[in-house]
Amino acid sequence: MERYVFAKVTARPGNGPALRAAAQRIVPATRAEDGCLAYGLFQSAEDENELWFSARWRDQDALDAHGVSAHVAVWLGEVDRLATGPVQVSVARDVSEGEGE
């Protein structure tokens, strides 16, 4: 069953551009992963220090593999250095048309 991920991370004051650049570096590697169906990075229109990720994965196994990938490990090191706290992650399933029941 497909998995959807919504994640938010906020840069410490003055670290917004550096955190955004670090996040942008993981986009190509993540999109190339087996099971990644869609992956986007967004910056809040209201707070330039706030970044959002939206992803769609083939299944939980693909999502789990992403979580232990080398590029995610590097990214999480950058989060520790540049963000106000850890990435806030929500995993969901699509129920808009009865899917996932």
Whole-number tally of structural domains: 1
Q: Which strand order do you get reading across the main beta sheet?
A: 2-3-1-4
Number of helices: 3
Order of helices and strands: EHEEHHE
Global geometry? globular
Characterize the main sheet. 4 strands, antiparallel
Give the percentage of residues in beta strands: 25-35%
**Mean of all residue-level pLDDT scores:** 95
**SS elements, strand count:** 4
Low-confidence stretches: none
CATH topology, by name, is: Alpha-Beta Plaits
What gyration radius follows from the Cα positions, in whole Å? Answer: 14 Å
Give the CA-CA distance, first to last residue. Answer: 10 Å
The level of helicity is 25-40%
CATH class type: Alpha Beta
Give a brief outline of the structure.
With 101 residues, this protein is an alpha+beta fold. It has helices at residues 16-31, 60-67, 70-82; strands at 3-10, 36-43, 50-57, 88-92. Strand 2 and strand 3 form a beta hairpin.
